[in-house]
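G., the chain you wanted modeled:
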Amino acid sequence: MKTPFIHPAGGIARRTAIQAGTISLLGLGLNHLAALEALATNPSPTPARAKSVIYIFLSGGLAQHESFDPKPDAPSEIRGEFKPIPTRTAGMQICEHLPLLAARSEKWALCRSLTHKSNDHSASHHIMLTGRSDMPVGFDPNKPKESDWPSIASLTSQFLPPANNLPPAIVLPEKLVHSTGRVIPGQFSGILGRKKEPFFLDACPFHPQTYGAFPEYLFHHRDGEKQDSNLAFHSPNLSLPHWLTQNRLEDRVTLVRALDKQKKFLDQAAEVQSFDRHWQMAVSLLADGKISDSLDVTKAPSAIQEKYGRNAFGWSLLLASRLVETGVRLVQVNLGNDETWDTHEAAFPNLKNYLLPPMDRAVSALLDDLESKGLLEDTLIVMASEFGRTPKITTIDGARLPGRDHWGAVQSVFFAGGGVRGGTVIGSSDKNGGYPDSAPQKPENLSATIFKALGIPAKATFLDEQSRPYALYNADPIPGLMS
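Predicted structure as tokens:
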């Protein structure tokens, strides 16, 4: 008889609870987890192919023609200005401005046929960050709502246990926010409830109208290179309740003493085995100097910073590598805020000078770094956007230089590590790079691939706050991708 697949949050050890900190200090109380899952109905977990997943998200929409699906034989208004270059894999070509990844093609694979029906930024973010093509009832493109579908990061936290007092899933280096201040939907817990929000590490607070991998590659879509002396990549900052004031945190000794005083309370409360893990682990991270120091990647050895790039892209992926090394199961890395990859105008100089070089460098360094530590086979890397770009190059009103518009019909998704068959291409787009031509895949296939790699069973279910059941998987994993 198989052991039921039980939500790990229901069985936190007393000792772990005591080490983690206090729910009393943070004023959080019990989190009423018991009704969130039909524990006995879920099957045993399948063996995890990967111990961790790094989901790299390129907000704005990576152009498939100018990255992983060039069309050199198409007319000029479709093929664009960039030339393809060969990779180490026979017959596979990618953009000339991704030379480092081209030299490592035996380590990664592509799906050139992922498709959904939205061309709207907010809706498409929601689709690709939740792995669901169907929009929730009452969806609002201008703000997240509790009726939204849960993000992949939230669902990972729902099903997988913490390790080393670290959360199962972390999002970094910042939340995705538009220049208007609009917070992008799809990043949060939605119907799982507010207490299941993803764990955000804030390393570079949002600044309106700034794009790219600052400080080396800071730019504006219309104006090109831009300087902003106020931007900085910080040692990650953890959000705490607003009433837990800064002066209380400045005195580490006072904080530790306060935590110690709560041990007796926790010793009793842990018997309930149901309290808010998010804040539990926030306090643990704040109180653990060794963990905090390891997360400050701007103090990493110079050689490793140079390899990744001394910029927001490089530091973010270096931080991701350290987090999976310490046991975090899923790290979502947002490479660029304010829809950085939204190349409506000046697409070719912006991609050539500001976007593709730091991405190529940082992702290549991540592959090398994980491989050197023996972690690449244990870590699935996924890189995607909310959508691709239009087959035809256009010039929008007021623009000096052309670009491509939003295009949900097809995009290329990058995979590496975690059992991925290197040098593989799944599916294809048509001759103009506009629609899937073979083996179309949906966001549901993408999320299923992630969940399966992490060992979450195909029949797993979760409950919303009203105890209504939902299937975690809504499609099969992408076939042919894994060895």
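The CA atoms of residues 426 and 480 lie 7 Å apart.

Shout if anything looks off.
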